[in-house]
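Exercise 7. Given the components listed, write out the predicted structure of the assembled complex. Treat all entries as one system.
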Amino acid sequence: MDRRQQKTRQAIFEAFSILLERKNFSNITVQEIIDEANVGRSTFYAHFETKDDLLKTMCTDIFQHVFYEDLKQESSHDFSHAGHDFEKEITHILYHLQDNRKKLKGLFSCDSGEIFMKYFRGYLQETFPSYAGKLHQKAPFEYVLNMTICSFAETVRWWISGDKDYTPEQLASYFMEYIS
Amino acid sequence: MDRRQQKTRQAIFEAFSILLERKNFSNITVQEIIDEANVGRSTFYAHFETKDDLLKTMCTDIFQHVFYEDLKQESSHDFSHAGHDFEKEITHILYHLQDNRKKLKGLFSCDSGEIFMKYFRGYLQETFPSYAGKLHQKAPFEYVLNMTICSFAETVRWWISGDKDYTPEQLASYFMEYIS
DNA sequence: ACGTTATAAAACATTTTGTTCGATTTCTAT
DNA sequence: ATAGAAATCGAACAAAATGTTTTATAACGT
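Answer.
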């Protein structure tokens, strides 16, 4: 990828991130984004179809890092094998999310939050079913799984949006206690 | 209130509700709303400042009914007295929400969902703290309360959005099992 | 150093928004 | 029933935002 493209892409991402902390996604105009990012109008549209597209791209971008590139580098995470510890797994994800705190905060805010959480839940669908399956409850599995995923996503949101100073270990233990 | 005002207000609410099931809040134009509602442009703006205002008004409108007018008519709900049963309380709320299923479904959908859930959680803040206070967990009260409220809101969303045919009693028991 | 490709800047058509005004209909109170 | 008040319609309008196109310039990779 061309250096210039990387630069503009990054500039737009950062500008967008900053603006999201200041105001709602729906009230942000393309004009404001390109002013903050200091790029031309046509350049924006060369990279993204619409503002929605920008948001979606940013979501996949972040989660791609958190769930694949970062996590995959560490060897100790084979979800499928028997002795695997769910709480440890959660803690690891929290560490990687913590590293992206700055980028994440804006995305959690009001309008964009809905889209962002949708993506987040999508990625959690890959990790959580194997754990939720072990909980034997009277409620339908479908319900328990959905709730477990939502609860984790909300836990992270509460942590990041509220600037809570808990460590990943603490937060993971609170979460585990809550869903147990 | 003038009959004409009631009629247009209702027509706009219904049109909006129908459109929300078809497409995202942010992609709905005022033009589409007034076409569907069959009212003039100036009439729309006589009732609501903006599309956002319409959404907010509709949210408060619904919850006002569900949490005050409907619930207050029944005598058996004194949250403060000692023998009060949380699960019964939940069940009651679910009954009233069920009556508004049609109106609610659109509001839960993507873009509007974030605003709607915010209002929903706001109303739950009045009911839930007294219950969440009784759960003694290691996690901060603030966290447990937030999670309990979110979990209930998500439970309702899952129920309504997914057209699940569980009775309020069933759903309440699933929820109670989940948070216990 | 060369051809290629991204960007900037400005101009533009289009869409959506929100306002205004006069004519018309519908309400309420008497 | 009727007169006065109030809400609606519809059309026209200004303002703002979107998305596209063009050309010249600058930065890139080989």
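Discussion: The two ends of chain A are 46 Å apart (CA to CA). Chain A has one domain: 53-179.
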